[in-house]
Amino acid sequence: MNNLKKSDRSDTIFALATPQGRSGVAVMRISGPDTNISVQRLTDQSLPKPRKATLRKLIDQKKSPIDEALVVWFPSPHSFTGEDVAEYHIHGSPAVVEALSTALYEQGLRQAEPGEFSRRAFQNGKMDLTEAEGLADLIDANTQGQRHQALRQMKGGLRDQYEQWRSDILDALAFVEGEIDFPDEEDVPDALAKRAGPGLFNLSEKLSKALAESGRGERVRHGVDIAIIGEPNSGKSSIINRLAGREAAIVSDEAGTTRDIVEVHMELANLPVRMSDTAGLRDTSNKVEAEGVRRALLRAEDADLRILVVDTRSTSMSLGTETLMPGDFLVYNKADLGNENPSGEENVSRETFLISAKTGEGFYDLVIGLERVVRERFGATEQAGLTRVRHRDCVRRAMQSVTKAYQNLSVAPELSGAELRVALHAIKELAGEADIEAVLDRVFSSFCIGK
What we know:
CATH topology of the largest domain: Rossmann fold
Number of helices: 14
Shape: flat
Strand order of the largest sheet: 3-4-5-2-1-6
CATH class of the largest domain: Alpha Beta
CATH architecture of the largest domain: 3-Layer(aba) Sandwich
Number of domains: 3
Distance between the termini: 13 Å
Strand content: 15-25%
Structural class: alpha/beta
CATH superfamily of the largest domain: P-loop containing nucleotide triphosphate hydrolases
């Protein structure tokens, strides 16, 4: 979003709140100090009753009809932005939308920037920055897991957490400042700053836990990466095709058919998942195939979960064994060929399955296992967690300062006080209360126009 001058924020803005294109109904939203005048000019009548849909004819400056619409009037401060707001529910043809937009331009209104309605709501105290981010995530939600997480954040779940953190910091700061400012007062207990110790230790633990669980929130927002690896002709492509329910990858008896990464986007346990079919792992002198093997290993290294596919007829463990981590999946394929006792090393830290990608034998158990692990390891928690890099950075800085403050309590209370003020600023930045115009520009530029 382009930086808005302070004077611009008092302009009256408008934007289509529904998608562009032909539709049964379109909603045009207006916000700003001249909204009431705009409504009266467009309808040639007095303002309708607040928050009640009223049928009105819309006209332009030449008194030519634009459309017949439902008009809803939201006087300040009881509106989404906290300003005077109006909505026009018009017929959704491009011609009607263009005619209404032209009439609003002629009144002196301007087109809203992406996210400007939400930014005004934030600036007018209708929501904090984390709630605004939750709203953006809700608009972008593609899965039920993303929807649930976004709703928790939009309803102030993360705000409740950081308000408690802020309260804990202020309590500790009161002890520290009390000893610094009143060292000789008789009614001030000795070593007052040390009383902040237990609270700071507990707060450090809370912040550390929030950081440790932050990966869950980011996985819900962006998705889980799963890499399927294994030797050529082990059945990787057949497995990803069956998981996707379509022919996403080429299946052939010829070894080395898959040389680049084939990605399939799907949903498991209400979470978005990117499943990657990779090149077969083997030593090869073919430069193109060798590059595919290199990329396969890199994708496996970066993935959140790995599935190693092994042909049941194999007499030795696959080359990809060293890539697996505890909790990854070991899938023996081609059970239809009769070998129910595949060879290979045992490792109880791996999820192990015997399947046939050709007949579907054992596939139900594999899918259920994948859903269970994705849900348990990457699914959202009941509490609204940290869902963005910005959140994690603010909390990390707060935790570092709280830890330093705890360590300095008995040595130099002045240093503890300084660190606690740094921690307090980090929490303010999380809420959007600090002077962070560049951060605000980046957050709200990701919104769609009209929101």
